[in-house]
Amino acid sequence: xxxxxxxxxxxxxxxxxxxxxxxxxxxxxxxxxxxxxxxxxxxxxxxxxxxxxxxxxxxxxxxxxxxxxxxxxxxxxxxxxxxxxxxxxxxxxxxxxxxxxxxxxxxxxxxxxxxxxxxxxxxxxxxxxxxxxxxxxxxxxxxxxxxxxxxxxxxxxxxxxxxxxxxxxxxxxxxxxxxxxxxxxxxxxxxxxxxxxxxxxxxxxxxxxxxxxxxxxxxxxxxxxxxxxxxxxxxxxxxxxxxxxxxxxxxxxxxxxxxxxxxxxxxxxxxxxxxxxxxxxxxxxxxxxxxxxxxxxxxxxxxxxxxxxxxxxxxxxxxxxxxxxxxxxxxxxxxxxxxxxxxxxxxxxxxxxxxxxxxxxxxxxxxxxxxxxxxxxxxxxxxxxxxxxxxxxxxxxxxxxxxxxxxxxxxxxxxxxxxxxxxxxxxxxxxxxxxxxxxxxxxxxxxxxxxxxxxxxxxxxxxxxxxxxxxxxxxxxxxxxxxxxxxxxxxx
Length: 492
Prior knowledge:
Layout: H1 12-22, H2 27-34, H3 41-55, H4 58-65, H5 73-85, H6 89-100, H7 108-124, H8 127-138, H9 149-158, H10 172-191, H11 202-221, H12 227-234, H13 237-248, H14 261-267, H15 271-284, H16 288-300, H17 304-317, H18 323-335, H19 339-349, H20 361-373, H21 380-391, H22 401-407, H23 424-441, H24 447-458, H25 478-487
Helix pairs in contact: 1-2, 1-12, 3-4, 3-5, 4-5, 5-6, 5-7, 5-13, 6-7, 7-8, 7-9, 7-10, 9-10, 10-11, 11-13, 14-15, 15-16, 16-17, 16-18, 17-18, 18-19, 18-25, 19-20, 20-21, 20-22, 21-22, 23-24, 24-25
């Protein structure tokens, strides 16, 4: 992290130089240079490059920083910012990416560059680099209260965009800085967040982005702060990325294709890091979305008892019940070889106050799965009657309602795949799962073929297919874990 104010007292010449720089006078840079005759070249490069960046003389900043030591994270952060302000976005992202790897993953320099890499990748729609940065940052998530600015920013960027001042062991001055930078990082994250396609308005996302960046810049442009505080703020490259975004904008896709950091880590095979982050999110805010995310992370790691306990805690402490708690709890019990308990959980889920878009079709579908795989635990006739009752309801037209009709052997079903967009691969997977299940029910395949087909279904590619980023949503389908368990032949 760049910290320019290192002296307890600033001499009059330095103070005057910065006052001129703040006012936009380039003569202040010469005065500043004179005050650094006895300082190290690295310190001089940091001070002068920040001054030039503030004045909009990015070419001067580049001259100072181009030959700086590659292992100096502060200079690398500023060099990337200078390249960014020159419009060389890919060069900036590549620089932050490559120099981040020169440091130990959990070190402050690596985290500093990873934060900028993640923000830059979000502003340019670079999903691969975003995941690279998230992986580095996720390794440093801790249960302890962040006690330095970088740790607090990691928490902000990955866990909570609305930081609670009581959650950080920071001074008032440090906390004010974190809150200021949180505006920048949360705006970048919101740009690529997940939205319901029909409700997404790209022009509003662009307006919100620029509004947040304007807030970041306006705070520093105001002359109310002391000169020391001004120097502290211009030492952060995020300020210059925000100012450049105000004038040049960012890549605004028609529909965001970004996933949450937890999802991207899990889908990328970084399961322990994804689980750690999901747990941190849950502890920060034990809301439905975070319970769901952590529950599926536990299932993915085969920590079935932990998944079940999590859902029981949510049912005990939360005011409203969601069917997802019963879906995850029942899936965990099934994978613990307790189908009777799983069935009871799914039955209880029919009474949840909130369900899926089809009005609670998922828990009934899971009961259908149980009736096919374990007809001794729940009769197929009973499961079918539950689906028939659901089919008569108005909300059956929403996903996963179409799967209800598939399980009831309807011939002409519109799965609305052309409307699925980012959910396309997830829907195709579930259609395949229930199709093979109905074939087994009708004795068209035997148990060995069912097991081998399930094995194929749970063997997913390591990365989402190009143009279909929703493939990772399969990992958030209870059926995936049931198929994985059944394919292993663990049922006794």
